[in-house]
Amino acid sequence: GIHHDDFMSLSNKYHDIERLLRKMVTASLILSQIRMDSIQFESAQQRYEKLLQTTPQIVQRVPLTYIASFLGITLETLSRIRSQK
Q1: Interior angle at CA 32, CA 27 and CA 33, nearest 5
Q2: Is 32 exposed, middle or buried (0-12, 13-18, 19+ CB in 10 A)?
Q3: Rounded to an integer, what distance in angstroms lies between the CA atom of residue 24 and that of residue 16?
Q4: Model-level pTM greater than 0.90?
Q5: Which of 30, 48, 29, 52 is nearest to 39 (CA)?
Q6: pLDDT in tens, 8-56
Q7: Largest CA distance in the chain
Q8: Are the CB atoms for 15 and 22 separated by under 8 Å?
Q9: Which of 65, 71, 69, 63 is nearest to 46 (CA)?
């Protein structure tokens, strides 16, 4: 890790680091917006199916409680969605 002030000092001195910071912040903002749009406009079923399409092995690696939380649904709702398959 690097302290924020040190990172800002480096970015002021080296433009490549400034550019890296800008790209990281932009990518993070885009991912956050996609996630919020998903929660707002997609059903729980759609979000779960998209998750399985992008990372099919996640169900074997992550507890269902965390998956439900990531999807913005309750564990009970996730169980209902999974039982329909």
Answers
A1: 100
A2: exposed
A3: 12
A4: no
A5: 48
A6: 899 999 999 899 999 999 999 999 999 999 999 999 999 999 999 999 9
A7: 56
A8: no
A9: 71
Tokens of 22: 């800008």
Round to whole Å and give the CA distance between 65 and 31: 22
Residue with tokens 């690097």: 2
Question: DSSP for 35-85?
Answer: HHHHHHHS-HHHHHHHHHHH-TTHHHHS-HHHHHHHHTS-HHHHHHHHHT-
Return d(Cα 72, Cα 66) in angstroms, integer. 10
